[in-house]
Fumarate reductase cytochrome b subunit (Campylobacter gastrosuis), 257 residues
Amino acid sequence: MSELIEGFLGKSVEGKKSRLPAKLDYLQSATGLFLGLFMWCHMIFVSTILVSDKFFNQVVDFLEGSMFFEPKPIVTSVIVTLVFAIFFIHALLGMRKLPINFRQWQAYKTHMGLIKHGDTTMWYIQATTGFIMFFFGSAHLIMMIFKADEISALHVAYRVVSQNMWIFYIILLLAVELHGGIGLYRLCVKWGWFEGENAKESRKKLAKVKWALTAFWLALGLITLLAYAKLGLANDGKPVPPKTHASLIIKSDKVGM
């Protein structure tokens, strides 16, 4: 136990510098990169509602293995559980670098106000949104694990309108896009990705790309949320019958044709 504690402090029992902090940094970067890219893929997935609710349901069935067998929600539960595990590990690793008490937060805010440095401010936003995500992101993922059979356009529309989940989704959208976008930017800066001959100019360009991407994903997310709200209102906010899985909705549509 003492070896582990001293490893976190950066020294081994023999007094030598430990490699553990560096390894944890690599793991934090790797999990952050995975989650950032997953976040974008997830946004593309949920935005398929902009094509049509039927297309969204077809995508759900495809991701649940419809090319191999009858679509099974358990596939979604397994995938989301793995994502949740990576999310939890990333959160624990990120907590290592957060101020641990109010006085440290106050000192950081004073420092940030004095130097007025863009990257310092972005770190503060990232830390704050990360704290929000720990609760909102966990709640969302847990709900998807245990209610994987309720992923369809109508189910989401019902949650958005009749259960007032639009408030939850807006907060989660803002936290995810700000945290993830800043995180990917900081990864590029930290590891020297896309760095040209002039590091300072490269960082400025990366920051512009980062804010452009954040604006794009936020706009797409809000438009997507409006599409679900529109569908929910068109359905008079009626609850979806239990066990109305996406594949069953598609089959009933085909029968009606």
User: Anything to note?
Assistant: Confidence is low (pLDDT under 50) at residues 1-9.
